[in-house]
Amino acid sequence: MEPITFKVKKYQTPSDFSASFSLQLVGSLPVHSLTTMSMLPWIVAEIRTLSTKSSKEEPSVSQIRLYVSPAGLRCEPDTGKIQQWDPLICSSLFEYKPQHVHKLIHNSHDPSYFACLIKDGAANQQSICYVFKADDQTQ
Question: What is the structure's pLDDT at 47?
Answer without folding.
Answer: 93
